[in-house]
Every structure is written in C-alpha cells, then in structure tokens.
Design a protein that fits this description.
The protein has 134 residues and is an all-alpha fold. The protein has six helices and no strands.
C-alpha cells in the first residue's frame, strides 16, 4: 500500500470509528465534554435520534472502533516512516498493539481495571493482520 493509500485508509478508519462513537455511544463519555461545553449536545442528539432505531451488535459498537483506532495508528506510523525500516519505526509500530493486547489480557485476568474482552483481542489481531498483509 502506498503512503497516500495508507493515509487515506487511516482517515477512513478514524472517521468510521469516530462516527460509531458519535452516533451510538453514551454521551456521558469524556469525549463529549467539549460538545457539551460548546452547547452542541442538543444538535448532536438530533442527529443521533435519526439513528436511534438502529440496533447494532455489541462487537460493532465496542470492539470494531478499538480495532479501527489501532489500524489507523499503525497506518499513520507507516506514513511517517515510509520506506524506512529503522528500529524506531518498529518500536512505534509495535508499542500500541502490544499495549492494547496486554491491557485486554490483564483485564481478563482481573489484574487491571476494566472488563477484558476476547472479542477486542480478536479485532486487534484482525487489524494487525490486515496491516501486515497490505
């Protein structure tokens, strides 16, 4: 995948993950604080109302965005160090995937706060594999 294609796919991944959060996730999350502070929550709720009838599976709402964020990160790292196989690129490329999977495992084992989810790990691995293949 070329640098331009990688950046395009990263932006699509970020946009899709962001739209899932904006349209379907709870507005009690910290990411909605700026929207609330600007008085835009009522306008956002009007948009969200149009999608209120959509009943999406939990993996779509919770695991897919995590995988998309991770994929976008890896693609952006690829863009930053395109045609460079330095140690720093490998370090930056691997730190977030390793961290994400480690946190999920620790949550699953009740060694870290949160709820470990095998579906999250599956999505991380799928998007890591997509990165490697393309």
């Amino acid at each position: 995948m070329s640098k331009r294609q990688s950046l395009f796919v990263a932006l699509i991944s970020l946009s899709l993950a962001g739209m899932i959060y904006i349209l379907f996730r709870s507005t009690d999350m910290y990411m909605f604080l700026p929207v609330k502070a600007c008085g835009g929550l009522s306008s956002l709720n009007e948009i969200r109302f149009a999608f209120a009838g959509c009943h999406l599976p939990d993996w779509f709402l919770y695991s897919l965005p995590d995988g998309l964020w991770l994929y976008a990160y890896m693609l952006i790292v690829r863009c930053l160090w395109y045609n460079d196989n330095s140690v720093i690129k490998v370090l930056f490329l691997s730190v977030l995937p390793v961290f994400a999977i480690t946190i999920e495992v620790l949550q699953f084992l009740s060694l870290y706060f949160g709820t470990g989810d095998i579906i999250d790990i599956v999505f991380y691995l799928v998007f890591i594999l997509l990165y490697v293949i393309f």
